[in-house]
Amino acid sequence: MEWQFFISIAMFALVMTGTPGPNNVMLTASGANFGYRRSLPHAFGIGVGLMSMVFLLASGLGLIFQQYPIIQEAMKWIGSGYLLYLAWKIANAKPSSGHSDITSKPMTFIEAALFQYLNPKAWMMMVTAIGSFSLEGGEYWWSILVIAAIFWIFQIQTSSIWVGFGTLIGRWLSSSSAWRRFNLCMGSLTAVCVVFIW
């Protein structure tokens, strides 16, 4: 494989994982509300979810979507509904009190991994990556491993930046009203992501 192959995937992965979308908006909100360390399982769960999607799509799941488009349509509706539910939870979250509120908690590793299957941006990223960068013949599975590994590396880095950004914002929010406005803003941005599904 040529270096151009690796660079192309890396650039695509950087843009796709680094730009705003449901994952990054929720990571920012999590960083602000729960701090950097407590948000890390959320970030790592995203990476595992994306990698599992790569292997499922490479194994033929994409063909099922082509043969039965109703499945993809149903996932759009379910994903939209779940995203709106998460947006409502974020918008109505109680103001942070020094990250010590044990009644609320960040998204877990498993929840974040499973959320990718309802995240339209995740499907678009993985379908495009496999369609654009996978190689034919004997190098097919090797190229799939490379795609998964590069996406995981870049996703961890960009997710860490978004969580860190949220953590910094959380330090600046000093009043309950500021927290409410921030959470309402993050919830609204999460809800807006539904527009991109349709």
Main β sheet profile: none
* Range of strand content: under 5%
Number of E-type strands: 0
Unreliable stretches (pLDDT < 50, length at least 5) are 99-103
* Portion of residues within helices: over 70%
Query: How would you classify the quaternary structure?
Result: single chain
Shape call: globular
Mean pLDDT: 85
Rg calc: 18 Å
Distance between the termini: 37 Å
Overall SS class: mainly alpha
Q: How large is the count of helical segments?
A: 8
> What's the order of the H and E elements?
HHHHHHHH
The tally of domains stands at 1
Membrane topology: Multi-pass membrane protein
Organism: Vibrio algarum
InterPro entries: LeuE-type
Protein name: LysE family translocator
What does this structure look like?
By secondary structure, this protein is mainly alpha-helical. It has one domain. Helices cover 78% and strands 0% of the residues. It is built from eight helices and no strands. Helix 2 crosses helix 7 (140-172) and helix 3 (36-67) crosses helix 7 (140-172).
Please outline what is shown here.
The chain has helices spanning 3-18, 22-34, 36-67, 69-91, 109-115, 120-133, 140-172, 176-192. By secondary structure, it is an all-alpha fold.
How would you describe this structure in keywords?
single chain, 198 residues, 8 helices, 78% helix, 0% strand
Task: Spell out the blueprint of helices and strands.
Blueprint: H1 3-18, H2 22-34, H3 36-67, H4 69-91, H5 109-115, H6 120-133, H7 140-172, H8 176-192
